[in-house]
Design brief:
homodimer; alpha/beta; Aminopeptidase; 18 strands; about 15% strand
């Protein structure tokens, strides 16, 4: 609607201002009045209070507040009331979802020795919160199926695909057995999924002290790491298929939506699975016989790890209450003064596994701080130009349920209006990390240059650069020298950005601090205010910095005259991903050649110890050469059109362009990277650049059609997946050209 | 003396024969009558008996037989008697040396908690030998000085130079403290040496279960690995300075030799040091406070490892009986029929730390088997052409004393007559490994092609190639394809070859099997016949193969008309070492540049956690460019002359050359790689190509003058050390040219 005069705008977009800290020069892409915006941001920064964040945190994490819990409902009211008090238009949006909670949990080592797993976490004198019992969910994996199974035990390391390949070399088949796997290397839900695919009848997951316990550092309450009774809870829903309510894939879990039968829900596990502590795992592992594990499989318990199967025999019994509960998202809205139909969405979940002081409250209190600051500005007559929506999601822990159902419900409106989705979750201290849409990479870098690290007093960008220059690998260090912007990470899954980014194609990002805050409390009984304030972020120093970072990000996106989307950075990352795919194919080709040649020469037969059971690996299918040309051509096209568009945008001479039309083209560009056909076998996931891995769970797969076809050795499909992805990229290039054409 | 006619010899050297196993074709360099030699070797192979080796092993390892012990003396008589019974001319050569044994050993954790280390190894029902107490030496480090010290404890990881650099970054000074270090990463004697150099007043060494215990596999008696009471004994004499009797450096410890005062002996440690078990180490480590160790420092005890210093305070008291004992080498001689003054020497030590079934008896019984077989051939009228000397050394364990004193005593005669020295020591099962003089690399490869692996029935060379093709790194795999011969390893130190090779320049090699036989019994009470026959080499299968390998090697060297020394293989390895040095200099240069740039940019200041004590590393001295040209030129010269000489030798047309003169030139060629000036600061070590590392102990340093100058950052000295080494190589090239000139 608003049109700016040529001359004014050309001037404005060339403007930079001196930063608040007096040293650096601030670049604010897309602003006519940079000084005004910086003044708003300075005022926002000033209004943030660690004391206030701490008080909210203490209140919100005072009791267990998992989805459906009484204190969770109280928190919803508390959060809603805060927003209302600041002048927000608040809605509590409820959904009716399936959420199993345990009725019976039993794990018994029945032979050759006996042991009944305690399955409880110690009450600690040093942490009063740990004494809460009645309101607390015991350790379990949400969306494990019921089961009562008995079988020989097999140790499967991390329970990821390569571990089963190794077991095959030992001649070990897990069919009819119960597997025990370490947490780590994959998202937890992958472990029972793979175990079931290999024929196991039950699965146990534990945190080995090598990865998460005394071997990493002092354990709680002496230090932050996982003590011998701590158990990581968590969902094992098959989220790489679809997240959200298991009974309503793709649709909101509201009245009128048809629901699957529980037995037909494809994201519930096929076998029962239970997480346990390393104290409970030790007697089980000690009772295993068979071969000693390969060296990289060993953990830090004071035993010799054996693979089994048996002689350890275990009984695993799990009975769940398959309850339907109501979950509640708090949606708080600050109307945009100029562009009310352009939404900048900012979210963090509010449900925890127990007290959740770190996960999710540390991110949520930052969000509340930002929201209050923005409301204050609005009350002073400086409302955002665009509408800002703050969301506190429910039921993220069991499977991103609150956010997913909300996105599914508001699909059409979001498609039209959502500018970006900005996510946080549990936060620590140390170095900033950002994962997200590369169309905003340059913009995020500008924000990182504006925010000062509280410990070192340099910008977040400068501290991150320093860290990478010290600890980065050669490639990262080279990139630091050669690339203007810090490369942001692509997003897989693991928090509420997934439905926005990967289902709808809304440019999204996830922010947090870490690297100096050990995370042994994750999903245990010990994620408490006591633990958080001693070890995660004493003084809420980085919680405030997170609020400043997200506050500035939100406010810039809400106020920019021209939205700061740019496309050459994306093209550069796409080029990197393509290079990775070519290298991956070459690596697989060489591996197959080498492996098969070794088999041909009987090299394994000669090299392996005949007194051991470890055999040669299988022959590998020959890897053909793939036709990457369509992707190369499409990418060249994207590069050209991105360069042209960025140049036009950066020139600042936008003529008589309709800014509403231009901005809409810019923020909807991410939609052009999706396809309604979704990904092979999982059409809920529509983004063709970023996806969580089907067999990694949270780890991202970029250009997923092609990458997963190569990784799964589906070589016949690769050329087709290249072509499909190339078509999306080619259409994206045209989208950019059409957008460029708007500018004279 | 003997001269061969041109025509005959030309024919002979081109001769090859079909191998015993019917398949491969045998190349025997230097033989006129290949078939005769192969027949001799076949007969040798046939006469070897696992039963006999087992019987000798059982007898020799029935009781503890360390240097100076009663059973050691009995073993000497037993060995000598065997040799005599086979017709050898046997001499028992005695030396009078210093060997401290413990009178008092006390290690007490005095605070904050209390613990008195048991310092004893468990008696095991499953191993009758472990019940022997009276004759057994308790765990100690030979040539630790006496001491009675008290101090705060500091954990120094492996106690190697980079660990002290890390401690410095933590601001930790070990001055006045007692250090506790893990066994591994360096030879044990380096640990007290470095600790003392850094100001520590005492040192404790233990085997962490991560390196040598339950984390590697089942512990004894269930499996072969070190149990919680096992302690690795061993010498801590400063052998990189000089080995042998500490009081008589460079001279034989016989009557008339002037001896140093004990207090003046430079190879005795400067501080008391004691080895302990991981059971005794655990309470000490558990009592440490201070920072948690860096991740790579952690072991496998079920604790969080801390660095200290303190609050753990320990008392370490060691009192030794500084006794003078008589040690006895058994020297058995089989006179050469044709060239009695050319000696092929074959040795293995006979003293163990306790029962020593693996170390050294497993190698010694192979030697006895070979000796018997050679004697049998001689008795059948087929004596060796050259004199073969079998040596069973005493007091290898405390510091290569028997062999070193013998070499020092017979220096002149050895210089003139020694053709080669062939060493074995403890043996296991699996893959052959050879380290030694590269002038014999081609020859060793021929032998490896002749001996059949007992498990896979292919040649030792083929099995080793298969293993490297499966587990080797890229460089090794590439070499397998591109290089005719398996590259043999250069020798550092650790067994009796050191005085021969590195003091006198006698071409030497060390042989053994391993890779399929865990070695947790090493230097513990459990190196027993029981352990050996269950885990190291059941059935003495590889002991027999070792006897065949060494028997053939010895017999070929004893009988070859022209000794199989060749020089292009050496030139190739020298080229590799030079490349490594250039790469090392470049790496150091880049490291210094990068490190100093990071310091300049305050990158560490920004990247490190201000709440931790870890600081930035120190600035590094700038690394200048070195003048490698003298080495490059000398090496080019060596290559040319080696190529010419090898070509002349391989042509087989030796004209009227005097074989005694030629062979003497060939076997004395290694002498030309030494310099009487020795190495900087340690003139006992004369070899200019191979040396044990001054700060690694057993790990080899090739081209040691240059390599150690770069590693020690003595950059001002590098050009000089290059020039000195180049001079030796240039003279060696001339030596090869002169040798070439003998052949028409």
């Amino acid at each position: 609607m608003q049109k700016l005069k040529n001359a004014v705008f050309a001037l404005a977009l060339a403007t930079v201002a001196t930063a608040a800290n007096g040293a650096a020069v601030e670049h604010l892409t897309g602003f006519v009045d940079v000084d005004r915006q910086l003044a708003l941001e300075a005022s926002l920064t000033k209004s943030l209070s660690a004391t206030e964040l701490a008080a909210w945190s203490k209140h919100l994490s005072a009791h267990a507040h998992h989805a459906g819990s009484p204190y969770g409902k109280e928190n919803v009211q508390f959060i809603a009331e805060l927003f209302r008090s600041w002048g927000y238009n608040v809605e509590i949006e409820a959904f009716d979802i399936l959420l199993p909670v345990p009725k019976e949990r039993e794990l018994i080592l029945e032979g050759p020795s006996g042991y009944r797993a305690t399955l409880i976490e110690d009450i600690l004198e040093e942490d009063a919160s740990s004494a809460e019992r009645a309101e607390v969910l015991p350790p379990y994996n949400a969306f494990s199926k019921d089961g009562d199974v008995r079988g020989e035990l097999v140790f499967v390391n991390y329970g990821i695909p390569e571990d089963y390949e190794m077991l095959e070399r030992y001649g070990i088949d897990v069919t009819g057995k119960i597997v025990i796997a370490k947490y780590g290397k994959s998202w937890r839900g992958i472990k029972p999924k793979l175990a079931a695919e290999h024929g196991a009848i039950g699965a146990i997951i534990y945190s080995d002290p090598a990865d998460d316990g005394y071997a990493r550092g002092d354990v709680y309450p002496t230090g932050p790491f996982k003590n011998s009774s701590g158990v990581q809870r968590g969902s094992v829903m098959d989220m790489p298929l679809y997240p959200g309510d298991v009974l309503t894939p793709g649709e909101p879990a509201i009245k009128g939506t048809r629901r699957l039968e529980i037995a037909a829900a494809p994201t519930i596990t096929k076998i029962p699975v239970l997480p346990i502590s390393y104290r409970d795992a030790e007697p089980l592992l000690r009772a295993l016989g068979g071969e000693v594990v390969p060296l990289p499989w060993r953990g830090a318990l004071p035993i010799t790890y054996h693979i089994g199967p048996g002689p350890a025999r275990v009984k695993l019994k799990l009975v769940f209450d398959w309850q339907r509960i109501t979950i509640e998202n708090v949606i708080a809205r600050l109307e945009g003064a100029t562009y009310p139909d352009e939404w900048v969405i900012r979210g963090n979940h509010h449900d925890g596994w127990n007290h959740g002081a770190s996960d999710p409250i540390s991110g949520l209190v930052a969000l509340l701080g930002e929201a209050k600051a923005l409301a204050t500005l609005a009350a002073e007559g400086k409302p955002p130009a665009r509408t800002v929506i703050y969301a506190a999601w429910d039921a993220e822990e069991p499977g991103l349920i609150g956010s997913t159902e909300w996105v599914e419900k508001h699909r059409l409106e979001l498609n039209s209006k959502a500018v970006t989705y900005l996510n946080t979750d549990g936060n620590g201290r140390g170095f900033v990390s950002i994962g997200g849409s590369h169309t905003l990479e340059g913009f995020f870098n500008e924000v990182l240059a504006s925010v000062i690290d509280p410990q070192t007093k340099v910008s977040l960008a400068a501290r991150r650069r320093a860290m990478l220059s010290v600890t980065g690998d050669e490639k990262q260090r080279e990139e630091l020298e050669s690339r203007k912007d810090l490369r942001i990470a692509p997003l897989g899954s693991g928090s509420d950005y997934t439905p926005f980014l990967q289902h709808l194609g809304i440019a999204s990002a996830n922010f947090g601090f870490g690297g100096e805050s050990a995370h042994g409390s994750y999903h245990t009984l010990y994620d408490t205010f006591e633990h958080y304030t001693r070890f995660r972020d004493p003084g809420f120093v980085y919680a405030v910095t997170l609020a400043e970072l997200l506050g500035r990000t939100t406010l810039r996106l809400a106020n920019a005259q021209v939205l700061p989307f740019r496309f050459t950075g994306l093209a550069d990352s796409l080029k990197l991903y393509l290079t990775e795919l070519e290298a991956l194919a070459e690596k697989k080709r060489e591996e197959a050649k080498r492996n098969n040649k070794l088999l041909e020469n009987n090299a394994y037969g000669l090299a392996l110890d005949a007194k051991k059971t470890l055999g040669a690996p299988k022959a590998l299918p020959k890897v053909p050469f793939f036709n990457f040309a369509p992707l190369q051509n499409a990418l060249a096209h994207v590069e050209d059109s991105a360069t042209a568009l960025d140049k036009a945008l950066d020139a600042g001479d936008l003529g008589n362009v309709d800014l509403v039309v231009l901005n809409r083209r810019l923020y909807q560009s991410e939609r052009a990277l999706t396809s309604t056909a979704g990904l092979p076998g999982r059409n809920w996931y529509r983004h063709q650049i970023y996806a969580p891995g089907f067999y990694t769970g949270y780890g991202v797969k970029t250009l997923p059609r092609v990458r997963e076809a190569i990784e799964a050795k589906l070589y016949d499909e690769v050329d087709h997946q290249i072509a499909v992805t190339a078509k999306v990229l080619a259409a994206f290039a045209v989208y950019l050209e059409e957008t460029r054409a708007l500018i004279p």
